[in-house]
Fold:
Amino acid sequence: MPFALEAVSTSVPVVENVQLATRTYRVRIECPQIARQVVPGQFLMLKLAGNDDPLLGRAFALYDTVDDASGQPAMVDIVYLVMGKMTARLARYQPGQMLDVWGPLGNGFEVPECDRLIMVAGGIGQTPMLALGKEYLGGRSYGQPARSVHQPQHVSLLYGVRSADLVAGEADFRAAGIDLKLASDDGSVGHHGFVTELLAHTLEETTGQRRQVVCCGPEVMMERVAEVCHSAGVPCQVSLETPMACGIGICFSCVAKIRQPDGSWDYRRTCVEGPVFDAQAIEW
Amino acid sequence: MDLSVSLGRLRLPNPVMVASGTFGYAREMQGLVDLGRLGGILPKTITKQPRPGNAPWRTIETPAGMLNSIGLDNDGIDSFLEKLMPYLASLGVPIVVSVAGRSADEFVELAQQLDGVTGVAAVELNISCPNVSGGVDFGTDPAMCEDLVRRCREATEVPILAKLTPNVTRIADMARAASAGGADALSMINTCLGMAVDWRNRRPMLGNVMGGLSGPAIKPIALRCVYQARQVTDTPIIGIGGIANINDVMEFLVAGATAVQLGTVNFYHPRASMEVLDALPGALEELSAGSVTEVVGTLNTEKK
Structure:
């Protein structure tokens, strides 16, 4: 179990903070200790430094790491949706302002060898997918020492949004070589309908290939993705977005019902045993 | 500077501990905190039988604090002794094991099982968790409290701490009762019962409807409880409730606490205990004190 053994807790400056889409921003922070270690699917806790309102940190997935002039990972990008008090204030942060950060936290994705990596995202659940896609396409390495991965022949992202104005990071995904397919609830971009319909279609088209699905988004959507994968016999990992208070395993808030080897379920901490779980282990 | 303190039969190298339920089982924090520097560690409360805990949501942030209804999620004492205690014992830090029983017999059995275990410096009786049924009566009925503490003391050699709830009419009565029962120290306070409501959906925010309020919001209540207990008993007091920095620590010491436990702050500032330890000698010097004990209970309430 990853008990944040390599995690650091520090205050770091904002390097840039730019809007990507409606209510959606990317903040870049300078934190080499975290940037060097973090792997796709892991997360950080962020808090506005010197400000106890809000009191608790908030969990954010790694979007990507960025190198300094010497080519070493030195900065971390986080993409966030303005939801409440913390993110509303963060959206107004300027370069040089400080954030408290602790991480990297959680287990991250570890994808078994496959022909096709199919990433499925709903809304802001897209954030862990850029780094993962880059890593499995051989475009960027993560971790210290750098993780070696089995590169699939094809990496796609099926990305569902409510409407076109909420699509964030489209250029990043395309530049990384990820095959991006969009779906929207209102039909304003891509497939008019649910991203799970895109998934079912993709799985039909790729029958016979070794496929792996990873998924992050609203719980109801992840449950449906898990069902689609299960009936198609395709393995699926999900990254849970359970609300957390500490992110490091000490508060026991962020529990999810996880199936145990004996068939029963137990509440397990998403922050230290996840956030990535085999979809079949989750009692939805 | 002498940072050591005595809480009845329990001696600590310094007064800065971390509160039960806010520090996991310590191993979660080993990358972030130099555990060996702590005055004491209180692992998450242990019960006789495993408990899955309450349904989510288990915590919700509130102004300057948070509500929790974790529900004593733990794997039971047998698992604790086998899987978690060896690591805790290896830290070389006083380990104060928090226990909760559903009956006096269960509390006594838990204390007996911990008595003499390597690394166990004391047992804290959690007679104040607001999130489980049973057990809490020991924290609100003085006669039951006194009897329980006495039974645990008579049945064991291990120092016994009583963790009191603020959810009573007169905290002084409870402090007096736990002292009469022979508690080595009084840990106060546990969380204040509270709740949060989502009015649009007409739903409680917590899965268990009500929960315990903690964090800076409850510090004034905790200070008042420590002060009131100090008036009626000489039993050492461990101050708990919203302590987040060195100023908070000093306030509790002056109000009458001999030691403190940092709780909720561990969630939002994981290194707070280390920063408090760094600052403690300087703060004592500011009061021209050569030891922690010199400042304990020195609050001057005379009219000016």
In short: Residues 2-105 of chain A form a domain with the Elongation Factor Tu (Ef-tu); domain 3 fold (CATH 2.40.30.10). DSSP finds seven helices and 16 strands in chain A. The first strand of chain A starts at residue 8 and ends at 21. Residues 191 and 255 of chain A are 34 Å apart (CA to CA).
